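Handout, page 2. Input:
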Amino acid sequence: MKKGLVLEGGAMRGMFTAGVMDVMLEKGITFDGAIGVSAGAAFGVNYKSGQIGRVIRYNTRFCNDKRYCGLWSLLKSGDIYNTEFCYRVVPTQYDPFDFDSYGKNPMEFHLVCTDVETGKPVYHPYGGRQDHGFDWIRASASMPLVSHMVEIDGQKMLDGGISDPIPLKYFETLGYERNVLILTQPREYRKKKSSALPLIKLMYRKYPHLVEAMAKRHEVYNATMDYIDEQEATGKILVLRPETPLPVSRVEKDPNKLRIAYEIGRKAAASKLNEIQQFLSC
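Output:
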């Protein structure tokens, strides 16, 4: 029976995810595979590379740096998270990502992007350094309206959360039957229709299938959450989520708030540690 880890996105709400992952890594909890969407992909790769503390470390260091993220980056580069600094400088110079350990770990790591031509999810088993560097990670985390599309081998992509925000069903098709989910919203949260839809229709008018996917994004998310609630009730999956909304914005500039969200994640994992271990031992 394959054991899987499923990681929701949510930009800097992912500090909760980082806290959960670090506790599980410290306790030696392993999975056969993981799948991440958006920030879940960007942060989740550190589980496979075994780099405890890396996510909270570089985000608190650079969150208030205009080279990293924010309006200055958006106006200068067209990406709210600066491509050059976030995906090239930081992981190679300031806080290196351990591609060697990533490659040696037999755990699979999959990520989700959205094809802008079709509006459909793109599921990709990320191979590491030789697999277009960090471009697949960047594509999965490229939020619409505030990020450029990422093109890989002629395929244009944006944030995976548009088309499959929590890819539990997909992972089940790959044979993962015992799945731990890390979500970044509380249980009662349901997504509302985007108020930015008029701007989306204008900006992406050349991509009608993408516009359609974004118009239905809230319906897809809410249906996914209903399925997760059903599966959780039967004991088929184990879900870790914050009890209340996290005190961070999507592009949080306050390192103290990031640390608070991270510690909430650590506490959530610690409180369910025995449950996680028992669930995965079945």
